[in-house]
Amino acid sequence: MQSIATFPLFYLPPVSYFSALKAVNFEFEIEKWEHFPKQTFRNRTTVASPNGALNLFIPVIKGSKYHTKIKDVKISYDFKWQRLHWMSLQTCYRNSAYFEYYEDEIAAFYHQETKYLFDYNLALTSWLFKQIKQAPDVNFTTSYIKELPEAVDYRNASRFKADNNQNLKPYFQVFDDRNGFLPNMSFVDLLFSQGPQAKLYL
């Protein structure tokens, strides 16, 4: 019987993703064999911009949808999305308390190309683990199991939406004077604001 939590791999996951990981004591496996689902956090992240929540998408090569396994989805570089994402992160977080502390390391992810979305997301997520002093054993599923017990199945992205996580407590955001608190942004929103103390928020 399935007893370990199964998580998807997201692009700069939302705060609720890390809260869920902490709830299972960072004992989990990553889904590697699912078909790539559209309109999810797997290739999208949300950051707090001067104008409110801003979605950033990683484009994937045409055909890398529907019946393509997530581990095989290739990133498209036809559009200079890395430049756009990096400029957006700078605009959103240049004035945050800890952006400069992390800037050089995270910038590297936007100045080199990675072939597969799965590998890119894994590298970024591993970097985020490092920043909150977590070093979980990263294990992967070996096949796709459609039906898992609800208690351990975290693959449905709706589990990480803001309206399902009302207990996310406010913290200072750069533009909260004009937008109010925006819950469940990308974890980098929390990290750039709180720095090493971000782990205490979870």
Secondary-structure map with pairings?
Elements: E1 5-7, H1 15-23, E2 28-30, E3 44-49, E4 52-57, H2 81-93, H3 99-107, H4 117-131, E5 139-140, H5 176-179, H6 187-194, H7 198-201
Protein name: WbqC-like protein family protein
Organism: Pedobacter quisquiliarum
InterPro entries: WbqC
Summed up, what is this model?
The protein is of the alpha/beta class and 202 residues long. It has 7 helices and 5 strands; from the N terminus they run βαβββαααβααα. InterPro entries: WbqC.
What does this structure look like?
This protein is α/β, with parallel strands linked by helices. The chain has one domain. Helix content is about 30%, strand content about 10%. It has seven helices and five strands; from the N terminus they run E-H-E-E-E-H-H-H-E-H-H-H. A hairpin with a 2-residue loop joins strand 3 (about 45-50) and strand 4. The protein is globular, with a radius of gyration of 16 Å.
Beta fraction: 5-15%
Tally of contiguous helical segments: 7
- Radius of gyration based on Cα positions: 16 Å
CA-CA gap between termini: 29 Å
The unreliable regions are none
What's the helix-strand series? EHEEEHHHEHHH
The overall strand count is: 5
What is the 3D shape?
globular
Please indicate the count of domains: 1
Give a quick account of the main beta sheet: strands, pairing sense, barrel closure: 3 strands, parallel
Oligomer: single chain
What fraction, in percent, of the residue positions are helical?
A: 25-40%
Strand ordering within the main sheet: 1-2-5
Mean pLDDT: 92
Helix/strand-derived class? Answer: alpha/beta
